[in-house]
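Please decode residue identities from the backbone states below.
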């Protein structure tokens, strides 16, 4: 029977560099001898990707949005994440439930108790072994998002107050769970960011 793989998630405010480093982290893990599955949330399965498109494009009530996030997550966990971990693969996921706590709860006011109840129902016993939270100030985030040249989704278009609520939630969770959650200064130089990632993806 294969040893269970590790579950690593990347989190943080939009524009902090999380997605930019995803493939690089995967290659570092593969270089260390691990089989790696790279995925994202919402998304990762055909059904979850359809729900992702809906959530990113359509304005909706925050509770409805939260329920759709967890519907996508339920399919993702059952069809992709748990089977990969059970087979011994390391799963590298762009966002997970910490994002729902940050964006839907802290950002939009959905009770954290609802998020926690849904998490317990959708992925009981499953939590990341390590979470890297990419952090940067609002000004850095906005400059990077504008520099992409692509249309921004409705989360990226939120105002500064929303950004600060989301950022503070991530920082608070990092203070609360220092063993699991490690902060990465996304406004640092590329070499500094990579060095920090290297230190913090090392798992026993």
């Amino acid at each position: 029977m294969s040893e269970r793989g590790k579950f690593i998630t990347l989190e943080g405010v939009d524009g902090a560099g999380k997605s930019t480093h995803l493939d690089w982290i995967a290659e570092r893990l593969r270089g260390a001898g691990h089989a790696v599955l790279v995925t994202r949330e919402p998304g990762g399965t055909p059904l979850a990707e359809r729900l992702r498109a809906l959530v990113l494009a359509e304005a909706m009530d925050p509770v409805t949005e939260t329920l759709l996030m967890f519907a996508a997550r339920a399919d993702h966990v059952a069809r992709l994440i748990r089977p990969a971990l059970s087979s011994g693969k390391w799963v590298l996921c762009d966002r997970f439930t910490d994002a729902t706590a940050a964006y839907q709860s802290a950002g939009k006011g959905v009770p954290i108790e609802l998020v926690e109840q849904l998490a317990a129902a959708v992925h009981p016993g499953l939590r990341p072994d390590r979470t890297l939270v990419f952090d940067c100030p609002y000004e850095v985030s906005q400059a990077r998002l504008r520099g992409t040249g692509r249309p921004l989704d409705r989360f990226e278009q939120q105002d500064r107050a929303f950004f600060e609520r989301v950022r503070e939630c991530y920082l608070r969770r990092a203070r609360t769970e220092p063993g699991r959650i490690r902060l990465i200064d996304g406004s640092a130089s590329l070499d500094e960011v990579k060095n920090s990632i290297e230190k913090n993806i090392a798992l026993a």
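Observation: The radius of gyration is 16 Å.
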